[in-house]
Amino acid sequence: MRLLPLLLSLAWLLSAAGALLDWVFPPDLSRLEAVGTVVLDRHDRPLALLPAQGGVWRFRADADRVPPALTDLLVAVEDRRFWYHPGVDPLALLRATAQLVRSGHVVSGGSTLAMQAARLLEPRPRTIRSKLIEIARAVQLEARFGRRGVLDIWLTLAPFGGNLEGVRAGALAWFGVPPEALEPAQAALLVAIPRRPEALRPDRHPDAARRVRDRVLAAGVRSGLFGAVEPAARFGVVGSIDPAGPIPTTRIGLPRHAPQLVGSLPHVPVVRTTLDLPLQAAVERLAQERLQSLPPRVSLAMLVGDLGTRDISALYAGDWGDQGRSGTIDLTLAVRSPGSALKPFIYAMAFADGVAGPDTVVADLPHRFGAYAPENFDRGFAGSLTAGEALRRSLNLPAVALLDRVGPARFAATLRVAGAVLHLPHGADPSLPLALGGAGITLRQMASLYAGLATDGTGGKLRLLAGETVDRPAFLAQAAAQQVAEVLTRPLPGFGPRGIAWKTGTSWGGRDAWALGFDRQHLVAVWIGRPDGTPMPAATGTSLALPLLGRVFDLLPQAPRPQVPHQAEPRLPGLAAADALRLLFPPPGAVLSADGPVTIRVMGGHRPLTFLVDGTPLPSERVQRDVAWLPAGPGFYRLAVLDADGAVTGATVQVRNSP
């Protein structure tokens, strides 16, 4: 046994020589660095993969991120003294040499994992000279990268049949799971295949693959890798039954979700996105289903956003496989006419200016604005109605009249602050047709605007890359945004009751059909049209896009938007009408002076009471039935009072400066 210390001393001497070799003749790491791109969702699940140069599915692997069953099996089967030798195992080399001399042919190669890593980095013909180079390189790799680094090389470059290299590609192609989710029997097959990658391909040689896998599992059981309580039969080692599970006989397609997005990402080893894989897959299935019923060359784009984080949770940018529908074009970035979908922002600015409020009576009657004489979609007129009702019905004349008061140039500049640049005809200035879709905008920009409307009035693009920093400039008054959101919240036609605020848009000639909606947690944006911009006769946002918007919301958990009724006087069970909470002053629609404080007074209800203006509580003695309120300035305000039982009453009032 004196030979063993001598051999180990020689091995460590080789290790020192390896460090010198590494400095003089550094290894060629080009294959290790030439990896594809793994695109992950928000929970690090594989969303899509892009191959390395030459179409090889090779992705960077990390020994610390794969299950121990895989690395432990690999070491137990391929290199039992891996953790002790410096890259070369003298005992294994002596054994292999002795077997060669006795039998006249190679029985075992004596290769360590470091020697295999050297061969994977720089493939060479199997000769004695190549073996000597591998020995030198193995010592060098161990000195440079350490043992975990050697494992990383093997896990990244090991062949798994065809154009599959590395455990990430192997795990996804043969089992449909990332290596982090491998079970012991699956890990055993991945340890087995690289021994003879073409002869052990499970889709071509399943019986051979099963036999070698079972031997690997048996070695794992003998080494105690799976615990003393787990019988070998669990891993298909005994008997004719195969408890370890069947061998995969077909190669699984590697994931490729959101292809237009993935194609635009930087070619780096790993990209983390904000998308949610299950939701992304569900949205893609829904889109493909809807495309089957659309006319030829008509495509669609969809976006789902998380209002809490302003992240994009799902994105469908067009039919990747159909050049007539979209091909590789990202339709969420296509500039299209929004039709009436920008009207809510005109109303929000008008409400904030004090020009109108949800209960203000406006006129929907024929009117000329200079040479411009807009009409409604049905060529009719509704007469007098409230601004809120005009917005819900998407009437054109009231929207154009309010834009005339707000100012088209100011309106366009406000949207620009939010990050939504309106595309106007060459040489044109912002004008009143903006109210009806007389400019271009993208689906992503429109979604960002609606996210501000749904939350706090701030803009900025929605995030697609995890960790991305985005500015959130304020472009709408929060109170006005909330008023518009309340106006737009009503049942979706054909769907059950749910607190969703929504708006549609249809561009001239039916070229673009839009639907945008939100609840407390989610934003959904839908566009349907032809990528080449040709008309779709009789198409509207209501008929084409709105039903799809409802289907997307059916995929999402419900989060009703809390509503404060415009003139709510709810009664608790058993409470007499005379005792119901009601607002005495000011009455709904009152016009108040900004010169001094206003006394808000109620009757009935159960104390203590809470008085709110635009959702903000006023300082008050909670047992009192009145409170003094000093308006901040001219404009429309939403007053609300809540009692101890949750009953609520309120009104919208206007405050003006005295003449």
Give a topology summary.
Elements: H1 3-24, H2 30-33, E1 37-40, E2 46-50, E3 57-58, H3 68-78, H4 90-103, H5 113-121, H6 128-157, E4 164-165, H7 167-175, H8 184-192, H9 206-222, H10 259-263, E5 270-272, H11 277-291, E6 299-306, E7 311-316, H12 343-353, E8 361-364, E9 383-386, H13 387-392, H14 396-406, H15 408-417, H16 443-454, H17 478-488, E10 501-506, E11 512-518, E12 522-529, H18 541-555, E13 582-585, E14 591-593, E15 598-603, E16 610-613, E17 616-617, E18 626-629, E19 635-642, E20 648-656
Helix pairs in contact: 1-6, 3-8, 3-9, 5-6, 8-9, 11-18, 12-14, 12-17
Characterise the protein shown here.
Residues 228-242 and 560-578 have low confidence and may be disordered. This protein has helices at 3-24, 30-33, 68-78, 90-103, 113-121, 128-157, 167-175, 184-192, 206-222, 259-263, 277-291, 343-353, 387-392, 396-406, 408-417, 443-454, 478-488, 541-555, and strands spanning 37-40, 46-50, 57-58, 164-165, 270-272, 299-306, 311-316, 361-364, 383-386, 501-506, 512-518, 522-529, 582-585, 591-593, 598-603, 610-613, 616-617, 626-629, 635-642, 648-656. The protein has 3 domains: 3-33 and 58-235, Penicillin binding protein transpeptidase fold (Orthogonal Bundle), CATH 1.10.3810.10; 321-555, Beta-lactamase, CATH 3.40.710; 577-656, Immunoglobulins (Immunoglobulin-like, Sandwich). It has a 5-stranded antiparallel β-sheet, with helices on both faces. It starts with a helix and ends with a strand. With 659 residues, it is α+β, with helices and mostly antiparallel strands. It is elongated and about 110 Å long. The protein is built from 18 helices and 20 strands.
